[in-house]
Amino acid sequence: MRVGLHAIWILILISSGCIAEPAEESRYRFASPDRDGIGKFYMGRQISHVMGHQGAAWLERGTRDAEERTDLLIANLPLKADFVVADIGAGTGYFSFPVAARVQNGRVLAVDIQPEMLDLISSRIATSGRLNVEPVLGSMRSPNLALNSIDLAFIVDAYHEFSHPFEMGQGLYDALKPGGQLVLIEYRGEDAAVPIKRLHKMTIKQAGKEMRALGFSGPSVVDVLPQQHFLIFTKSGE
C-alpha cells in the first residue's frame, strides 16, 4: 500500500512529540510558538523548550545553592528514612544524591529521558558509593515506574518542559502509593522580579489546576525558597 508524503510527515511529527496523536487533540492546543516555547499548549499554558544534557554545567553551577537555597529545598522534603523517592527530571543527580542520604533505608529513583544524563548519574554512583540511587530511563509520556511503588516524587524546575504533562502526571499519580505526595518546585510565575524567562515559571493557580485535573489534592505551600514555589500535592488515600 502506498502511503502519501503528507501522511508520512504526520507520522514523523507524532513520533517526535511535535504534534499530538489523535486521542490527544482535545487535551492539547497547537499554535505558533513563542521564542521559548514549542507551540503546544496545555490548560492555557505554553510548554517551554527542554534544556538538554548540554546544559549540565548550569545545573551544577557553584552559585546554585546560594541563589536557590537548595539546602532548604532538600531539608523540607517530607521524607522518612525508608521512603522510595522518585526524582523526576533528575538531570545530573544534583538532588538525587543528597536526598538519598536522607532515605538511607530507602531508595531514590533518578528518572530522566536523556540517556546522557543517566550516564552522568551512573558515574556519580560509581565514584560516590551511594548505591541507593538508581537511574531510570523515562519517556516523554511516562516515568516508567511501577504502580503504587513510590512514597514521594519531586520535580525541580522541569515540569514546565514536559511535552506530555497530562500523561506524565498520570504516570506519577499511578506510581505513588495511596496518600503519597508529589512535590513540585517551579520558579514563581507571579513574581516579575524572578530573573527567569516567562515560560520557565509557573503560578500556584496554574500548577494547582493541572495537578487537580490528575486527581491530586492541594497544594500545600511551603514558603521557604527565595525564587521558587514549593508545592506539595497529595494522592488520595485509596
Question: Topology as H/E string?
Answer: HEEEHHHEHEHEEHEEHEE
Tally of extended strands?
11
Report on the biggest sheet: 8 strands, mixed
CATH fold descriptor of the largest domain: Rossmann fold
Based on CA atoms alone, the radius of gyration comes out at 18 Å
Mind explaining what this structure looks like?
With 238 residues, the protein is an alpha/beta fold. The chain folds into two domains: 5-48, no CATH class; 53-234, Vaccinia Virus protein VP39 (Rossmann fold, 3-Layer(aba) Sandwich). 29% of the residues lie in helices and 26% in strands. The chain has helices spanning 5-16, 56-59, 64-68, 70-76, 96-102, 115-128, 165-175, 204-212; strands at 28-30, 37-42, 45-48, 84-88, 107-112, 133-137, 150-156, 176-188, 201-202, 217-221, 228-234. Strands 4, 5, 6, 7, 8, 9, 10 and 11 form an eight-stranded mixed β-sheet that branches. The longest helix is centred in the middle third of the chain and has 14 residues, at 115-128. It is globular. The N and C termini lie far apart (49 Å). Mean pLDDT is 88; it is low at 1-15.
